Amino acid sequence: QVQLVESGGGLVQPGGSLRLSCAASGSIFSIYAMGWYRQAPGKQRELVAAITSGGSINYADSVKGRFTISRDSAKNTVYLQMNTLKPEDTAVYYCNGDIRTGWGQRRAYWGQGTQVTVSS
Fold first, then answer.
1. What are 24-55's pLDDT values in tens digits?
2. Cα(95)–Cα(107) distance, rounded to whole angstroms?
3. How far is CA 39 from the centre of its chain?
4. N or C terminus: fewer CB in 10 A for the chain?
5. DSSP state string for 72-85
């Protein structure tokens, strides 16, 4: 199977920065896209940023100019650099991967989530 493991969350003051990482491992044949979603208390899960295997990138309007998604294809890892953080960025951040396994199955995989809290 496939596992996505996130790291890098934590508590930061408004205006601060954090860098999230997500490493995919297991029986991976191909990764079509990876991305980050977030879910705040009482709200639906929303897309933050995504990057395809071809390098196309998509950001939520609320994070454009502040967050940067990048990837290391050799390591099956995606990063989210978050700058100028705001209290409204507080949420659990989930890594997502559109992955085909070695057995030919293609589907979405999710990490366990990492808490990001922006507060003074």
1. 999 999 999 999 999 999 999 999 999 999 99
2. 14
3. 12
4. C
5. EGGGTEEEEEE-S-
Per-residue pLDDT tens digits for 96-115: 999 999 888 999 999 999 99
Distance of CA 38 to the CA centre of its chain: 8
- Name residue 77's beta-bridge partners: 23, 72
Do residues 79 and 24 lie in contact, with contact meaning Cβ atoms separated by under 8 Å?
A: no
Beta strand segments in the chain, E: 2-7, 10-12, 18-26, 28-39, 46-52, 57-59, 67-72, 77-82, 91-101, 106-110, 114-118
**Residues constituting the chain:** 120
d(CA 2, CA 15): 35
Gap between the Cα atoms of 83 and 70, Å rounded:
14
Q: DSSP alpha helices (H): ranges in 4-48? A: none
1 Cβ contact list (under 8 Å, min separation 6): 26, 27, 101
- CA dist 56 to 13, 52, 72, 93, 101, Å? 31, 5, 14, 21, 22
